[in-house]
Amino acid sequence: MARERLEYRHLDVFRAVMRSGTATGAAALLGVTQPAVSRLLAQTEDRADFALFERLGGRLVPTARGQALYAETERLFAGVEEIAAICDRLRRNEPGRVQIASLPVLTLGLMPAVALVWSGAGGAQGLVIRSRVAGSVLALVTSRQVDIGLGFVLPRVPGVRSALLARTRALCAIPPGHPLADRPVIRAGDLHDQPFIALSREEGVQALVDRALRGSGAHPREVAECPMITAAAAMAAAGVGLTLADGFSARPFLGGGLALRPFEPAVVFEYRVLWPEGVRPGFDRMRLVQIIRDEAHAVLEHARRVSAPGGA
Questions:
Q1: Which of 261, 214, 267 is nearest to 242 (CA)?
Q2: Quick one: how far is CA 65 from the chain centroid?
Q3: From CA 99, how far away is CA 149, in angstroms rounded?
Q4: Angle, in degrees to the nearest 10, between helices 111-120 and 285-307
Q5: Which DSSP category does 169 fall into?
Q6: Could you tell me which of 189, 185, 198 has the C-alpha nearest to residue 233?
Q7: Which one of 109, 118, 168, 234 is most buried, by most CB atoms within 10 A?
Q8: CA dihedral 160, 162, 168, 173 (to 10 degrees)
Q9: Neighbours of 68 (CB within 10 A)
Q10: 6 three-state secondary structure
Q11: Which ranges of the chain have pLDDT less than 70?
Q12: In the 8-state DSSP scheme, what is residue 93?
């Protein structure tokens, strides 16, 4: 006999329990009774055929399988909510919106300027920005869930076109008042025994830094690893340690005393614009791409001026 499938109502209850930690809290979130939540939760575990929670001290603690199911459930509900929002816009005869998947560093350091220019230049369609790690940016473009992706350099992927957005040399981000801020150029050897904030190993960014350090004899003291480059720059600005950054990641902190200096040997970050092949967009894609490029150039040029001797 075939096992009964999970239904939307089961996932709705499961999600509410995950968010609240108790059946009583889930009932309050959903506006139903606690016994109704308990009954549906029992059905959910029965149909899934594995435990979703452990009962500990009056709270429901998710199992590893429960955590994995929750991650997928959140993606499902995000899609449902997006469809509801689309229906609302269609009822109001509003134009569609441009879906963009972007690395967090570009979401924070570039996209505010892009959105301002796009809206001011008569871009009728609004922008929806989804901040994702590099692999997720590519996945959203490949699956055609977004119109444009902003990510790192990547191998050729069937069905995805890409073009260079920016290629920029990394700069050393130095906390306010640090002695190295007086130097016009920071060399790999200068980082020896300095507190250092490592970058993303998952995306291969820290590997670029490690390659530059190799052969210099320098062994920085890694005090933190921060995959999000903008957060690493924020830590440097707060005095946690040194890191490597670029104009996009350092931009929010340049007025707060963070110093940027050229770094040797060169560490190059390359960003690219991605889009699904064979899709006719409902907006002027090339115009938007050009705005993104122009604003990227402006951000990086500002960082170059700031990092020059006497620039900060």
A1: 261
A2: 25
A3: 9
A4: 130
A5: E
A6: 198
A7: 109
A8: -30
A9: 11
A10: coil
A11: 1-3, 82, 84-86, 88-95, 122-124, 309-312
A12: T
pLDDT for residue 310:
60
**Which of 109, 163, 153, 156 is CA-nearest to residue 131?**
109
The C-alpha atoms of residue 26 and residue 9 are separated, in whole angstroms, by: 13
Q: List beta partners, residue 280.
A: none
Classified as helix, coil or strand, 288 is helix
Instruction: Give the pLDDT score at 21.
Output: 85
State residue 238's pLDDT score: 93
Report d(CA 128, CA 280) in Å as an integer: 18
pLDDT value at residue 225: 92
How far, in Å, CA of 87 to CA of 90, rounded? Answer: 5
According to the model, what pLDDT value does residue 95 have? 60
CA distances from 213 to 152, 179, 190, 194, 206 (A): 21, 20, 10, 13, 11
Separation between Cα atoms, residue 126 and residue 115, nearest integer Å: 8
Closest C-alpha among 38, 39, 67, 40 to residue 52: 67
Dist CA 127 CA 143 (whole Å): 19
